[in-house]
Amino acid sequence: MAEREREALAVIERVFAEELGRDAPVDPARPLGDLALDSLEVTVLVVELEDHFRVRLDHADAGGLATLGDLARLVASKAAKASKASSASQAEAGEAP
């Protein structure tokens, strides 16, 4: 598991404990449907992930997500792409990354 993916799972675990009041450990293999998250809880989780990683998650992204691990991989992938794009634009502008 990549570093960003582990970080995403850590953020998910923190949100579950601190924001949603769920103390159970986060299992990356756990199906999202088994979590019984309501729409407000999903929104809180998504906003926290977006804010932490400075990425944007939308409904189209959710189509292939079956587990918490899938969500962590998606966030890690988007964060890596955003970081790469930011570094490239800074390089074009002559700035240090």
From TrEMBL:
Q: Where is the Carrier domain?
A: 1-79
Tell me any Pfam family this protein matches: PP-binding
Spell out the InterPro entries in the cross-references: ACP-like_sf, PP-bd_ACP
Protein name as annotated = Acyl carrier protein
Record the organism: Jahnella sp. MSr9139
Upper classification of the source organism reads: Bacteria, Pseudomonadati, Myxococcota, Polyangia, Polyangiales
